[in-house]
Design a protein that fits this description.
Blueprint: H1 14-23, H2 30-37, H3 43-56, E1 61-62, E2 68-69, E3 77-85, E4 91-95, E5 107-109, E6 124-133, E7 136-145, E8 152-158, E9 164-168, E10 176-179, E11 191-198, E12 207-216, H4 222-230, H5 239-247, E13 257-258, E14 265-268, E15 277-283, E16 293-300, H6 311-319, E17 323-325, E18 328-330, H7 335-341, E19 349-359, E20 365-376, E21 379-382, H8 383-390, H9 396-399, H10 402-423, E22 433-437, E23 443-448, H11 453-475, E24 482-484, H12 490-501, H13 515-525, H14 531-541, E25 546-548, H15 572-584, H16 600-630, E26 637-646, E27 649-654, E28 660-664, E29 672-676, E30 681-684, E31 690-692, E32 696-705, E33 710-716, E34 732-733, E35 739-740, E36 749-750
Parallel strand pairs: 5-7, 13-20, 14-21
Antiparallel strand pairs: 1-2, 3-4, 3-6, 4-5, 6-7, 8-9, 8-11, 9-10, 11-12, 15-16, 16-19, 17-18, 19-20, 22-23, 24-25, 26-27, 26-32, 27-28, 29-30, 29-36, 30-31, 32-33, 34-35
């Protein structure tokens, strides 16, 4: 429809022009204003003067191409950094460069289904903005921009000319950044700093600006601090969230089921900082269920304190989960809740959401029921304590709990374990590294975290409760965030099948893939020298578990439905499951709101990402602690095993600490090496040396970099496997007689001379 323009007699007033500029969804120029009000000829001189006056008085801002907008408004075309989806699934972004102290406006990215890959947190785009409501904008992407690191965490160092440099702490951002004197924020040499990359020239070091000083490097807490800031882990809670947490009161009995007389106990690691699950078991007295058990799993009632949509809920959503480091926890909820009212401390009344389950003598669940209760933990026990008691060595505390708590728990566990074995789950033994610190936070030793039947007991009770939660939500037709684990990719399984065949092992084909097939393969491999190699390959063949409202089952646990219910203190997914159960079972306040299911897909994607972020941060922190621990042992020769073979070298896991270090291909004995990807080996062309996955080796520690957590290693001839000599026909053979590197790649990689 043609635009209606005012007549000449209706000259626009100052107020009308201001309203036109401020209400325009995009900045406007003088020509557009003149056209809108029908201003022609010599009258444009007066309009020009008025616009200059408005600019001098601060009523409008003049941006690119002399286009005007409200003060503080963003330009029409701007560089944005993607923040990720909000709870409603809308993709948010923020201006990459923000001037002044005003809060960043809300910017919604228009969906771009053609973007490959999909936009993710930290991506940079050039976008055209359109104001949609007050200070909110809608952005249409013009093009994706090269990714600069959104955050740089590193060590600041002063240079001779008065400027500075930042040595990045990230393994993926190894280059240095130049910092102008004006951009150093007063940082001192040796300080850990948080910086922002700046657009700069292609030549020379990239530029950065220090935005926060985090403290001196080398202190006992710096390893975790580096990982927290490198991975952008939210640390501080806003004032509103803290106020809600501090005002919280203990949950009253009210209409809750009184569970305080039951012998509920918590069983956690000795270093656990929060206790959100308690367990109980007793023989079933029903004569129809001889040998069966009644189980109770009680979980902290976090939904009572964290209401949908409040400041605590928003903080928990953005965090997604707690993050655990050797010297600290970055909690999903403030400590008033995570270590206080939602921690099931012994002898204190605590609100809980509990499930009562009845199982038969074979561990099969017969029925279950959820309730909202008030409980009182009888004891806070550790895995070591409970296992020692079960092995006949109780201490003073566990001796009094044997009959009413520990013995029936183990009896019920054995029944559940039998059901697990019949179901046929995938049992991967994944040793976890543990850094033992002294009172000053310095690493005393690195060790594998010991794993007992007491750990498995708690796992089986938690799995049973999680299954019951998923089943209940399906029966009540309530929305559910499932924990799903897809079957492995067919191509990966075929590659695994072909490789283990060269070891004389068999992974069945031509039938429906089941997790117990992998467990059987691992059992057969135990008696061979290739056990670790097969374990690594089976692990790499598996899909990654994620959160989703679409149920595809849990392949690893061999379960058709599974949802996380047991840790709402530290996982947002569990909190949503609690709310859905409260709604479906009509258990009172804190229920899931109507329409919440529409957001579950976006929430599932977000919290799956925060889970991966937390795992990466925890792993990097351990790497830094280990590197600091090994820094004084540079030059030592250590035993290890090859855990990964790449075209640029070997990754070796040290036996003593479980740390992984790189043996660069250039440091291998003098030869040209072919990377045989299918056989997971580097093969020397001239002498036929073969370095393969799982092989025991001796390595010299060349460098231990505490800043990045990286270890540099050098191979020392010898190991626990005899090295093959030069093959008769110039071709190496893998175990079982398989040929490797029969057709070399076009660009072989040369190692160093054997003797320097």
């Amino acid at each position: 429809m043609a635009e209606r323009r005012p007549k000449k007699a209706q000259e626009p007033t100052r107020r009308q022009i201001l309203e036109y500029i401020r209400e325009s969804p995009t900045p406007v120029g003088k020509r557009e204003i003149a056209r809108a009000f029908g201003i022609k000829g010599a009258d444009r001189i007066g309009l020009k003067a008025l616009l200059k006056q408005l600019e001098r008085e601060g009523e409008v801002d003049r941006g690119r191409h002399r286009r005007m907008a409200s003060p503080g408004a963003l330009p029409e075309v701007v560089t944005l950094t993607v923040l990720g989806p909000d709870p409603d699934g809308e993709l948010l972004a923020a201006p990459t460069e923000i001037s002044g102290e005003a809060p960043a406006p809300r910017i919604f990215l228009e969906p771009d289904r053609l973007a490959k890959p999909a936009f993710a947190r930290g991506d940079r785009v050039l976008a055209r903005l359109r104001r949609i409501d007050g200070e909110a904008y809608e952005a249409r992407v013009i093009r994706r921009l090269p990714v600069l690191p959104a955050r740089i965490v590193g060590i600041f160092e002063r240079t001779a000319d008065g400027s500075g440099r930042i040595r990045s702490a990230g393994k993926k951002t190894r280059n240095e950044f130049r910092v102008a004197a004006a951009d150093s924020a007063g940082a001192k040499p040796g300080e850990i700093v948080l910086a922002q990359a700046l657009p700069g020239h292609r030549h020379g070091l990239p530029q950065a600006r220090v935005v926060e000083r985090l403290g001196p490097h080398g202190g006992p807490r710096s390893a975790s601090l580096l990982s927290i800031y490198e991975h952008d882990i939210p640390v501080a809670f806003d004032a509103e969230a803290l106020a809600i947490a501090k005002a919280a009161k203990p949950a009253p009995l009210g209409e809750r089921t009184d569970l305080r007389a039951m012998a509920l106990v918590t069983i956690d690691g000795a270093d656990a900082r929060d206790f959100d699950d308690a367990v109980f078991a007793e023989p079933d007295t029903d004569p129809k269920n001889l040998g069966g058990f009644v189980l109770l799993v009680a979980i902290a009632d976090v939904a009572y304190y964290v209401q949908p949509g409040d400041a605590l809920d928003r903080a928990a959503y953005w965090r997604g989960n707690s993050v655990y480091f050797p010297d600290r926890v970055v909690p999903m909820l403030p400590e008033e809740l995570s270590n206080g009212l939602c921690s099931l401390k012994p002898g204190e009344d605590r609100g809980c959401l509990a499930v009562r389950m009845v199982i038969d003598a074979q561990g099969k669940k017969l029925r279950h029921r959820f309730m909202r209760g008030l409980m009182r933990s009888m004891a806070r026990l550790t895995y070591d304590q409970v296992q020692a008691a079960a092995d006949g060595h109780p201490d003073e505390r566990t001796a009094s709990l044997m009959g009413q708590a520990i013995t029936p728990l183990y009896a019920a566990f054995r029944a559940l374990l039998g059901e697990r074995q019949r179901r046929g789950t995938l049992d991967l033994d994944l040793p976890e590294r543990q850094a033992i610190l002294d009172d000053q936070g310095k690493v005393q030793r690195i060790q594998a975290r010991l794993r007992y039947d007491s750990h498995r007991l708690i796992e089986e009770f938690m799995i049973a409760a999680n299954v019951a939660a998923a089943e209940t939500l399906e029966r009540l037709r309530q929305p559910c965030i499932y924990r799903v684990h897809d079957a492995p990719d067919a191509a990966k399984i075929q590659a695994l099948r072909e490789f283990v065949a060269t070891l004389g092992l068999n992974l069945a084909r031509g039938q429906v893939l089941k997790p117990k097939m992998f467990t059987q393969l691992l059992e057969r491999a135990k008696a061979t020298p290739y056990a670790l190699m097969v374990h690594e390959l089976v692990l790499r063949s598996q899909s990654q578990a994620v959160y989703s409202p679409v149920n595809i089952g849990h392949f690893g646990l061999a379960l058709p439905r599974y949802a996380h219910f047991t840790s709402p203190i530290r996982r947002y997914a569990d909190l949503l499951v609690h709310r859905a159960l409260i709604a479906g079972c009509k258990l009172g306040d804190g229920a899931l709101l109507a329409g919440a299911a529409d957001k579950f897909a976006a929430i599932g994607e977000h919290i799956s990402g925060t889970e991966r972020r937390a795992a990466a941060a925890e792993r990097d922190a351990i790497d830094r602690f280990v590197a600091a621990f090994l820094a004084d042992r540079v030059g030592e020769i250590l035993p290890g095993r090859i855990t990964s073979v790449t075209r640029f070298g070997l990754f070796v896991r040290l036996d003593e600490t479980g740390a992984d270090g790189l043996v660069p291909i250039g440091s291998l004995p003098n030869d040209f090496y072919d990377h045989d990807e299918a056989s997971h080996a580097l093969v020397g062309r001239r002498w036929g040396r073969i370095y393969r996955l799982g092989e025991g080796v001796m390595v010299r520690l060349v460098q231990a970099e505490a800043l990045t957590g990286g270890l540099l290693l050098e191979l020392v001839e010898g190991g626990d496997d005899e090295r093959p000599g030069p093959p008769a026909k110039g071709k190496g053979r893998m175990p079982g007689g398989a040929k490797v590197a029969a057709r070399p790649p076009r660009r072989p990689i040369r190692g160093k001379p054997r003797h320097r």
